[in-house]
Amino acid sequence: MVDDGVADDRTGQPRADVRLAAEAWESLFRAQVALMRRFQADDVWGDLSIQEYDVLFTLARAPEGTLRPRDLGEGSLLTQPSLSRLVDRLEAAGLVTRAPVAGDRRGRAVRLTDAGRAAQREIGRRHVRSIDHLVGGALDADELTTLRRLCDKLRAAQPHLVDPVAAPGRAGT
């Protein structure tokens, strides 16, 4: 057992896993950064940025392709000011619309248009091929299953971070 000076909340005894947890996080984080750099460099995004695609993808996963801006922000990796400008660009391109929320006079929602859904699907197909090459090419089927299970377990252990558009069984496209 390694004594890192951190006690287990339940027993008061030193935790044996502190260093291993930190090393596992570092490995996961660095793998994610390396993959995101490769994905960003891919020639699959067309006229959109990876961030714009992320918004289209998040909306495509939402019920009726519609989310309030705060929910869209929680489901994507963008700050609110960046998200507002990005939605402005997507709206100008005809990929999303803003509309009132039924029953809420002040509420507004962002909705995926048919053109936005088509763009998301087209880019998504190319992106999935890239994912298959970079992730599926590095891991076998059992490893991919284990990776998914472990990542799902990590997300589930963060109950205060609600995923407003979580859809079990949906592919990450």
What is the straight-line distance between the termini? Answer: 42 Å
CATH superfamily of the largest domain: Winged helix-like DNA-binding domain superfamily/Winged helix DNA-binding domain
Helix content: 40-55%
Enumerate the spans where pLDDT stays under 50 for 5 or more consecutive residues. 167-173
CATH class placement of the largest domain: Mainly Alpha
Annotation, overall tally of beta strands: 3
Q: How many structural domains can be distinguished in the coordinates? A: 2
Side by side, the strands of the main sheet go 1-3-2
User: Any idea what the radius of gyration is?
Assistant: 19 Å
Number of helices: 6
Structural class: mainly alpha
Q: Strand fraction band?
A: 5-15%
Shape: globular
Sequence-ordered SSE layout with sheet pairings:
Elements lengths: L17 H24 L8 H12 L4 E2 L1 H7 L4 H13 L3 E6 L2 E9 L1 H23 L4 H16 L17
Antiparallel strand pairs: 1-3, 2-3
Helix pairs in contact: 2-5
Label this structure with key terms.
globular, DNA binding, mainly alpha, Arc Repressor Mutant, subunit A, transcription, 2 domains, DNA-binding, 3-stranded antiparallel β-sheet, WH-like_DNA-bd_sf, DNA-binding transcription factor activity, 6 helices, 55% helix
